[in-house]
Write a structure and sequence with these properties.
Blueprint: E1 2-3, E2 6-7, E3 10-11, E4 15-19, E5 26-29, H1 38-48, H2 72-90, E6 97-98, E7 105-106, H3 118-125, E8 134-135, E9 142-143, H4 155-169, E10 182-183, E11 190-191, H5 203-218, E12 224-225, E13 232-233, H6 247-281, E14 283-286, H7 296-304, E15 309-312
Antiparallel strand pairs: 1-4, 2-3, 4-5, 6-7, 8-9, 10-11, 12-13, 14-15
Amino acid sequence: MTHSTRTLGTTRQSLTIRTCTNCGLKFLTEGEERTCGQICFDELKAKHTKPQCVICSKRFNRKSSSHKTCSHKCGYELKKQNAARYRDKVRKPKVKIACERCSKLFLPTRKDQRFCGSRCYNQHYKRTVIVDPRPCVECGEVFQPRTERNILCSQQCRYVNDKRRAYVRGTIPRMPGTLKPKECLVCKKEFQPKAGSQKYCSPTCNGLIHLKRNRSRLDHNRLLKCWICSKQFKPVTSKSRAKFCSAECRAVHHGNKAAEKRQELEIEAKKQVEVKEKWNNASVSSTEVPADSLFPEEILAFINRGGQITQYLNPVWVEGSQPSEYEDDFITD
């Protein structure tokens, strides 16, 4: 919409109503202004001006108004600066403490840090501890402990102590060494069994008796009869259930089985061919819709187009035919 006025013989320039591109309000203007005032002009200029990175001061195109950095690198640097600013504001200032090993002052990186470095840490925990001799808890013999917590003198005492604690807890039924000594069945030596069912003093005697038992299975006089050649043969072990005396007889047996299977399949295939021929011979071509059909409309449309349907009769009804065991697969009610 435009308005024009005439004053003292001169024509004044027309006013135009425009819409501010920043705030959306309507205003009157004589020129081509797009904003209603200086504030909207500055805001619109800021929107179209590229922002400046707070880290490297580089102009960049940002996808969101919250972006303050031009790249991931500058963004990571800004996060570090903000974190450092927060630490300086919230955390307490660090105070130097003395190392427990060398008494040197240092700034700790953790609250529970006690040593200035790994060298002092290793020297502190690897130092030799002087402990007075003490009696063993299990056997009572006096020994020199390596640490303050060492109360057993040897591996044997440690084993007995562990078993004693397991017996107190109820994990094992008895303490080792409480059974009566036994005589080994192989070497006839007396030994202390660890279980009531133990019969041999060592793994060597146990292996010897098992080897003897296995050899006794090989030394036998049992004879079996071969299924193919009917010869008697001696199997490998006394409990063997072998049926053939050699690999040749086994191959002959499997060949005979395969030949029998092939013969059965051939006979079955011949019978199926005979049954199919009977049904084909009993078929009748017709142009009438069967009364028991499930799709009479489709069949009628097919016949109207000039087609013919084939109706099959039971081959048993055909003169001279004989029923077969395979005809049940083709008969339909």
